[in-house]
# Entry
Amino acid sequence: MALTLAIDMGTTNLKVGLINERGEILSLCAAGIKTRSVETGAAEHDPEELKNLVVNLSRQVLQDNDKDDVQFICSSTYHFGLMMLDEQRRPLTGITLLSDTRSQHTFPHFLSEYADDDLYQKTGCPLIGQYILPRLFYFSKEKPQLLRAAKYFHDSKSFLFEWLTGEWVTDISTAAATQLFNIHLFQWDQEILSKVGLSSEQFPLPADGTTFCAPLRKEISALLGLKEGVKAVLGVYDGAALSMGLSSLNPGIGIINIGTTAMLRIPGRYPVFDKNENKRIQAYAFNKDLFLNGGALNNAALPLDWMRNNLFDFDVQDSTLLRDSNEPPLISLPYLTGERDSKTGPYASGVFFGIRRHHSRIDFARSVLEGVAYSLRYIYDALKENNMEVKEIRMGGGGVNIGVWPQIFADVLGVPVVIPSGREPALMGSSMLAFTAGGIFRDVDEASKNIRSETQCIVPNSASMEIRDKHYQFFKKLREGLASLYEAHAGLYS
# Structure
């Protein structure tokens, strides 16, 4: 039976799993990834550490299994990675992460420089500072010598794939979140790049991650103890792989990943652009035939972890976290690290509103759980307003293990939330792509049916829906009303 070595390279953890055609995880290993900061605001991965982690975890996964049955390697990696290389293709920097905030220093200048370019309509990316374009703009203004020395540019996917295969290529779903990629032409946008003095030839070739394959380099095969001829399937970004593993990207099914960060995506044949001036929707290409429209949050479990580590502990399985009432609620805007929002996002920070003497640690924890759900409803409403309908939500990620959270999401969104029982949906999604690209299955639907797992369905509570909707309407007013104050507050530090 054919096996796939699936790699999921996230911003905080790297996972490697060995998966067979029935969707069984034969072995799984994971390790944390260190974040390094070379200056204030910087957040990067060391590329050599990533390579070592992939090798070490892969060897552990393979040691008690038949290595000769491994036919494919497929990876999912994170968005917003940028690494600069010199003319000899030697790294000049690490790989930037979502939490790298250096571009915020030059973001106002960036907005004025690109005022005449409709970046949103070209790229599907709203005007927020996490994308690669504003990061390149930062380097062009603050570190021009470094940018001039850079002749080639990697993202997280192209870095890993070139090391595995020698091919300098990235997948469309990763390129789509750079703000450099024209989603109508499916290529790097030269006009956008020219304003930072760069050209499309300096970036990897964008290809369909569901079909593009290359043989594993002989040196890597030997390093891992694999036979020659193993195919490396390009794969997609981590959120897209998870979406594939949860739903096979069937129409009408929304996907939520709830972990340190969170996302809500709805697959469709065309990009969806928010008609609202706030540009709440990110229209990301999956490949040339499919788009993942939706949005994401920087802050999901992250503010819960911060609260437990820095303020007070609480039991995440406490059933009273689900309690609601018609009293004025404690409202949380849980934006500790800013948000991906063109109005509020660049300057957002955390807020607790409506604190009273009777509020307990459970009330504070509940307000954060609800604040994350309300923030995703903000995106959900944008999708509905732009004619994207959802009949159910499929949810994955570590947040589903917080017992009350899926019910809160069901009540806030007003649709059933389905939780598949299978482990590691991102690794599953990558294995589905690998087995399909390798000809084991006819298409991903067949692959999905072969590995389909049992599901748990959580339906909305009508009484709670009414209360939470009232609270959400206030949450939205508070969030939008604070936008100008957030910016003024950030200006106090300049």
Remarks:
- The chain has a mean pLDDT of 93.
- The CA atoms of residues 215 and 231 lie 5 Å apart.
- The first strand starts at residue 3 and ends at 9.
- The radius of gyration is 22 Å.
